[in-house]
Amino acid sequence: MNRDLTVGKPSSVLWKFCLPLFGSIIFQQLYNIADSFVAGKFVSEEALAAVGNGYEITLIFIAFAFGCNIGCSVIVSQLFGAKRYKELKTAVYTTLIASGVLCAVLMAAGTAFCTDLLHLIRTPDNVLADSRLYLDIYILSLPFVFYYNVASGIFSALGDSRTPFIFLAASSTANIGMDIYFVTVFKMGVAGVAWATLICQGISCVLAIVVVFFRFRQIPTEGKVKLFSWELFRKITAVAVPSILQQSFISVGNIVIQSVINSFGSSVMAGYSAAVKLNNLVITSFTTLGNGISNFTGQNLGAGKLDRIRAGFRAGLRLVWILCVPLVLLYLFGGSWLVRLFLNDAGGTAAETGVAFLRIVAPFYFVVSAKLVSDGVLRGAGMMGKFMAATFSDLILRVVLAFVFSIPFGSTGIWFAWPVGWTVATALSIFFYRTGQWNRQNS
Asked: Where are the beta strands (DSSP E) in 259-417?
C-alpha cells in the first residue's frame, strides 16, 4: 500500500515506515550470512575465506545497484510528495532502462577482470579458485540484484516498506534451506552456495517487478506516459552517481583493507569474513533506515513541509539508538558464540580474529548510526556534495589507518581504523545537517 509520509505525527509515521525496512535488511543480510555459515560449517575454513574474499568484490556491483535504488527512490519520493504522478511513472521507466544498460556493462567488465582483481588483492592460492567460482556465478545474478534494488526503491518512495519485507523474508528463508541442500545433498561446495542465492534472488526480483507494475495501474494519470526522459535521467543521475561513487569507493576501500588482511593468511581471512558479515548486518540495517529517512525527507521537501524534516531527524536518532543497545550488548558479550557459528575450529586463530574485531567496533555503533541518520536527510534533500564529503572522510581514514595500525599491532590493529573513521565522519555529517534549510526556519 502506498503511504503519504507528509501527514501524521512525524515520529509515528517514520517509525512505522522504517521498522519494516529494518526487518527487510535483516533478511537481506541473511543471504550473505547464510552463504558464509554454510561454507564454513559444511565445506571448510578455506571455503569460508573464499566466500568472504569474493563478497568484498561483489560489494562493488552492489554499490551500482544501490545507487540506482537511491537515485530512483529520492526523485520518485519527491514527485510523489508533490503529486506529480505522470512524471513519477516516467522516472521509474527511465531508471529501469538505464539500470539495464549499466548492468550489462558491469557483467561484461566483471567477467573480464575479476581474476585480475583477485590477484591484485593478494588472494592466497588455496582460496583463489573458489573465490573466482563464487564471483562467476554471482555475476550471472546481477540483473536480479539490480532490478530488485530498483523495485525496492520504488516501494520505499511510495511509502510502502511492508512489501519488500515480505519478499525478503520469504526469499532469504528459502535461501538458507537451499544453501544447505545444495552443499550437503548435491555436494556442490562453494558453487552450491552461489547458485542457491542466485535462484532465490531471481524469484524475489521477478515478483517484486510484477507488483510494482500492478501498483502503477492504481496511480491515476492522464495522457500517455513517456518511457524515457533525459531531464529526469539527469535528476536521477545527480543523486545516483554520488551514491554509486560513495558505495564504490567504500567497496574499493574495503578491498584495499582486505588485501592487508589477506597478508595474514587464510585463518585471519576466515575470522574477518565471519565477523564482518555480522558487522555489515548492523551497518547495512542502519544504512537502510537512513534510506527510509531519505524517502521521508524527499516527500516532505517536495510538499514544502520543512519542519517535519527536523522532527524526522530526531525520531530517526531515537530509533537507531534504541536498536543499538541490544546489538552492542549482543556483540560484546555474545560475539564469541556468534563468530563460532561460522567455524568448525572453535578455538583457532579465525575465531580469535572475529571476536577481536567485534569487541573493538561494536561500541561505536552508537556513533556511526547517528551519521547514517543525518546522511539520510542530506541525501533526501539532494545535498550530495556534503553527503559525499562526510562519507569519504570515513573511507580515507579507515584505509590509511588500516595500513598504519597493522604494522605495530598486527591484524588486530586493522580493526581500530573503523572507530576513528566513523567518529570523524559522524561529526562532519551532523555539522552538514545543521546547515540545511530546515534549520534556518524557526522551529
From this structure: none
Lookup: cell for 367: 556513533
What does the chain come to in residues?
443
> Measuring CA to CA, which residue among 95, 21, 43 is closest to residue 65?
95
Tens of pLDDT, residue by residue over 155-190, are 888 888 788 778 878 887 888 888 888 888 888 888
Backbone angles phi, psi at 33, to 5 degrees: -65, -40
pTM above threshold 0.85:
no
How far apart CA 31 and CA 232 sit, in angstroms, is 33
In angstroms, the CA 4 to CA 51 distance is 41
Contacts 24+ apart (CB under 8 A), 190-193: 190/39, 190/43, 190/47, 190/50, 190/51, 190/130, 190/133, 190/134, 191/133, 191/134, 191/137, 193/35, 193/38, 193/39, 193/43, 193/47, 193/51, 193/134
- DSSP at 158: T
Nearest CA to 413 out of 423, 404, 422, 421 is that of: 404
* Grid cell digits, residue 7: 501527514
Q: What's the CA gap between 26 and 12, in Å, rounded?
A: 21
* Region of residue 382 (phi > 0: left; psi between -120 and 50: alpha; otherwise: beta): left
CA dihedral (70, 76, 79, 83) positive or negative? negative
Tell me the C-alpha distance between 18 and 289, whole Å.
6
Could you write out the DSSP letters of every residue in 210-258?
Answer: HHHHHHHHTS---SPPPS--HHHHHHHHHHHHHHHHHHHHHHHHHHHHH
C-alpha cell at 272: 574477518
Unique residue bearing C-alpha cell 522532527: 311
pLDDT digits (tens, 9 = 90+) for 249-285: 777 777 788 888 888 887 888 888 888 888 888 888 8
The single-letter code of the amino acid at 310 is R
C-alpha cell at 214: 500492478
- Determine contact, residues 182/196, Cβ cutoff 8 Å: yes
Instruction: Please give the single-letter amino acid code of residue 389.
Output: A
Sign for the pseudo-dihedral over CA of 171, 130, 60, 392: positive
User: What are the DSSP calls for 67-135, one per residue?
Assistant: HHHHHHHHHHHHHHHTT-HHHHHHHHHHHHHHHHHHHHHHHHHHHHHHHHHHHHTT--HHHHHHHHHHH
Q: Exposure of 319 by Cβ count < 10 A (0-12 exposed, 13-18 middle, 19+ buried)?
A: buried
Whether the Cβ atoms of residue 377 and residue 433 lie closer than 8 Å to each other = yes
SS3 category, 301 = helix
Q: Residue 304, Cβ neighbours under 10 Å: how many? A: 10
